[in-house]
Amino acid sequence: MNVPLLDLVAQHRGIKDEVLGAIMAVIERQGFIMGPEVAQLEAQVARLSGTRHAVGCASGTDALLLPLRALDLAPGDEVITTPFTFFATAGAIHNAGGTPVFADIEAASFNISPGAIEAAITPRTRAVIVVHLFGQMAAMEAILPIAERHGLALIEDAAQAVGARRKVAGEWRSAGELGTVGTLSFFPSKNLGGYGDGGMMVTQDDALAERLRRLRLHGGSRQYYHDEVGFNSRLDTLQAAVLLAKLPHLAEWSAARARNAARYTEAFTGHPAVCPPQVDSLNSHIYNQYTLRVPQRDELQVHLKERGIGSSVYYPLALHLQPCFAHLGYQTGSMPVAEAATESVISLPIYPEMSREQQDAVIDAVLQFYV
Fold this sequence. Notes:
The chain is of the alpha/beta class. The chain has helices spanning 8-29, 36-49, 60-70, 88-95, 114-120, 140-150, 206-215, 237-246, 250-268, 297-306, 336-344, 356-369, and strands at residues 53-57, 78-81, 99-102, 125-131, 153-157, 165-168, 171-174, 181-185, 199-203, 283-284, 290-293, 345-348. It folds into two domains: 8-248, Type I PLP-dependent aspartate aminotransferase-like (Major domain) (Aspartate Aminotransferase, domain 2); 249-369, Aspartate Aminotransferase, domain 1. Strands 1-9-8-5-4-2-3 form a seven-stranded mixed sheet, with helices on both faces. It has a three-stranded antiparallel sheet with strand order 7-6-10, with no helix packed on it. Helix 6 links the parallel strand 4 and strand 5 (153-157). It is globular and about 65 Å long. The two termini are 20 Å apart.
């Protein structure tokens, strides 16, 4: 049975009329740049995130880059982040003029370790980027006091965690709500994905929101007048229209992913070789990925492919060992928990439209491999 890692065609079939109607409204109006859909989407994402402001931009990568530029980093300024995430997190630090400093992860959650953050702080540290990996928020109740104590900006990379929540001091808090700024990606594979690139920044800070709005428009708040050198990083109106059509379905899709995750976890729990993801009891996980730890990971992936089952390895090489960061001086063994994860993780299909028969085929294939 064919089971793709992600089936966007199946998703499109269910929302085709809504999406095409939204796109055609933009086309008929011929209003492609900063049309009203952008502001409408910003307002709705701000409500979802529990923030005062949301500022659209061209990609999830730019959603990281613009807040880092707003920090006015000087050469030698350090930004602490996880080595176990997509490259854009560390790449944005470099491109904003800062130096990435890596702090190891927690084995259970794959998220950055609060203790490792504190140990990595130096007099040159300016900020921390926390990644809410795979759809599960990091331990914000432990990380926030560290950032506050040391006077550091705290950026929440929520590219994989739109709509994720965590109980902090007894209250549900959304991804992006508590930090200096939160960042979202609308890359097509995300739980809320566009029909191309797109991103958004969310914040409670009025002054920061205004600066981010300038930075995305060449550094100016009015046409042809520029307070600083910014970027061309507008969220495309067509993408905003697509996302507005999709957003009402997000809660339903997240619930379907959670149901699929529960079936997987029930099937794999107690298996001597297959370790399902561990969910912190304080978290509401949105399962952008469902990631196992297994022995013989590469052989399992071949086994699945031979049976028509999609899978992916997020991520096969930790960021501190990437060739482009060799000059930072990290060596194999510097981040042992992240390095162990790169050797054992594999993500399975968990998209909302997956049928029970398709999921059974995935479960059976994994269990058969370890017989």
